[in-house]
Amino acid sequence: MTAQADDELWSAIGDPSRRRVLDLLVSHGAVSASWLAGHVPFTRQAVSKHLAVLEQAGLVSRRKQGREVLYQVEADRLDQAARAMGDLAAQWDRRLAAIKRLAEATHAEAKKKAEEE
Amino acid sequence: MADLLIEGEVLIEAPVEVVWRTITEPDQISQWFADRVDLVVEPGAHGYMEFGDQGGPVVVETVDPPTRFSFRWNHPQGEEPVTGNSMLVEFTLTQEGNERTRLRVTESGHELRDWPDAEKQRYADEHREGWGAFLDRLVGVVAKHRSG
Predict the structure, then answer these.
(1) How many structural domains compose chain A?
(2) Which B positions 65-94 lie with beta carbon below 8 A of chain A?
(3) Using the beta-carbon criterion (under 8 Å), do A81 and B9 form an inter-chain contact?
(4) What is the CATH number of the domain that holds A29?
(5) Nearby residues of A83 by Cβ (< 8 Å), 6 or more positions away
(6) Cα–Cα distance between A97 and B105 in angstroms, integer?
(7) Sign of CA pseudo-dihedral A75, A79, A84, A86
(8) Cβ distance A61 to B135 under 8 Å?
(9) What is the pLDDT of residues A64-106, one digit of tens each?
């Protein structure tokens, strides 16, 4: 993933309103912007803006069906996003484990010293 | 209120002051986080963290010893980190007895802005499990698409 694509992805999924839109697309499949606007606490204009950002990040694609434009999630890109999130969570687990080891070792050493004195 | 992306927690058998030093002293930070840390732990201080051949600026936000420490990073070089172009890492330390500390970390992105408080609350309630549930659904959808 290039740094710019990475930024776009993070920025796209970092916003809770957009995640809400994504959530709806994940659970309902291909739907129109008007349908989405009826299921979120923000305006039709905001929905369109969010869809544009999600599309730019490759997370969502659109197709025409009759007179309607339907939006749907891009599974591969979502998979990539899910992996990136999972990696980040795993990184923090490792860091927290390291902090625990360090702090406990420091503390044990200080206690030992205090006992010796 | 920031929207959570990642949250983690660990129970440490050490006093809160020891944990505080572990997460805020540069020579300690370099043992669990970055390879090289150039940072003064003061609110607003600009620092730098190096990871292998990569690195980036860090800006300290909150320093409230020994319970709260936060910084922003992952913002574009040369720009001031603000909500929207950076990630916020927040540590919260809670003493749980003489020699035990609960350390919680969150890394969050954009904030819940432009929403009335009632909506924020509703959203928070619906998304109590946060990323876990979202990722489960993502993974489920991906599996469905793959098999379909």
Answers:
(1) 1
(2) 74, 84, 87
(3) no
(4) 1.10.10.10
(5) none
(6) 12
(7) positive
(8) no
(9) 999 999 999 998 888 777 777 777 778 888 999 999 999 999 9
Using DSSP, state whether B25 is helix, strand or coil.
coil
Pairing type for strands B68-73 and B87-95 reads antiparallel
Residues in chain B within 8 Å Cβ distance of A24: none
Measured between CB atoms, which of A20, A89, A97 is closest to B6? A89
Best of B5, B87, B113 to disrupt the A interface by mutation (most A CBs within 10 Å)? B5
Q: What is the ipTM of this complex?
A: 0.71
Listed in sequence order, the DSSP H helices in B1-148 are: 16-24, 26-32, 117-126, 131-147
Rounded Cα distance between B23 and B143, Å, is: 39
Question: With an 8 Å Cβ cutoff, are A102 and B31 in contact?
Answer: yes
Tell me which of 3.40.190.10, 3.90.960.10, 3.90.180.10, 3.30.530.20 is the CATH number of domain B2-111: 3.30.530.20
Strand-pair partners of B59: B46, B72
pTM: 0.66
**B51 touches A at CB < 8 Å:** no
- Which tens digits make up the pLDDT trace of B97-121? 889 999 998 887 644 344 455 555 5
CB contact under 8 A, B31 and A20: no
